[in-house]
Amino acid sequence: xxxxxxxxxxIASCFLIVTLxxxxxxxxxxxxxxxxIGSYQADAKAAVVLDAQxxxxxxxxxxxxxxxxxxxxxxxxxxxxxxxxxxxxxxWSDTVVPNEAQANLSKQTELSNxxxxxxxxxxxxxxxxxxxxxxxxxxxxxxxxxVAGSQEAFVQQMNAQLQRxxxxxxQIVNVSGLNNDLLGDLQTNxxxxxxxxxxxxYEVALIAQHxxxxxxxxxxxxxxxxxxxxxxxxxxxxxxxxxxxxxGNALADDNLPVDGLKTGTSDAAGECFTAxxxxxxxxLISVVMNAHGASADKSKRFVATxxxxxxxxxxxxxxxxxxxxxxxxxxxxxxxxxxxxxxxTLVAKQNFSLWQPKAEPAQGHVQLNKRxxxxxxxxxxxVGYFQLGNQAHFVSNPASIQIGTxxxxxxxxxxxxxxxxxxxxx
Length: 426
Prior knowledge:
The structure is a single chain. The N terminus is likely disordered. This protein has a 6-stranded mixed beta sheet, with no helix packed on it. Strands 2-1-11-10-9 form a 5-stranded antiparallel beta sheet, sandwiched between helices. A two-stranded antiparallel ribbon has the order 3-6. It folds into 2 domains: 317 residues, Beta-lactamase, CATH 3.40.710; 103 residues, Sandwich (Peptidoglycan synthesis regulatory factor (PBP3), Domain 2). By secondary structure, the protein is α+β, with helices and mostly antiparallel strands. Helix 3 runs antiparallel to helix 5. The protein contains 10 helices and 19 strands. The chain is 26% helix and 24% strand.
């Protein structure tokens, strides 16, 4: 019954939310709001775990529900900053100067910030690092100003980027993720006084996925457990990364080598965390939104993340199903009519791997265009498909791969064909 339940869950879901790195359309409608092959549950209001390269979903809980995301918004803001850097529109050595209002906001100790001095220049590099490591709100606001000229223009860029990724239901009202009522006169024009950024767990994971795919160097910053802001300046600040799962921090786990990405906290969002870690040659992304637990417990989002990732890795394994130009599992063959050989071995036309429940090894079957093929047959001739036993595994990556012949098969001379036909009669 347990294996049947696992199969039902897999059939009822579709794992992938992306096609190609540069895709402009995402297939959110076909991803499961809830998906779990085991009995475990994320200790949070919403959560998702997926493969960073392929987008294959390994766990989902209320993953389509749009919720406040707080400072996890900065992943999108800093994606656009990195984009501007790569396009040459902004340089790491460029500087930004905060005004009095921005400097005053940066000194509010109840908010995540590095204290800034009005009319003092800070480099893009320092502000970028502070935005990741210390979740510095005014720092990311200054970066947005540098990239787009104003907060309003940058928010438009954020929404436009989400549209290009196929995200249609996000609410983005500012660059930092703070609730608007904390921004005072620095609130983005045209947004509601108490509004806050909102995304679903899938959409947060999608931003993280694009960030890691397009700008993998981000990990060189997010993996830092500590750093110093504005070193040598009057307002030099020692920063301790809020990500407690990083090596060297309080909740680090040798079995889960987390090297990013971003925390988020607000009254509406609760305690949130987007994590990433390498698993062999793969990389996973997890998102935990509004972790359950006492309000005073500042470790609950990290404990929830550790428990969720541990359970996922206990239940899943990454498996190679086919290897390009190698025989298919079981070494099936194609029947050849009037050929020198009467059968030819079938091979995969591409590598194919996926995460697979450990309790249910991957299955597949051959689907031939024709059961018998007339000789001659060219080497690597496409003759059909190798399909996963479960066609619901994928939305946009192939649930089947092309198969071809391992060797060419020459046609028999006419007299040998005639002789073979005589033999079949008698």
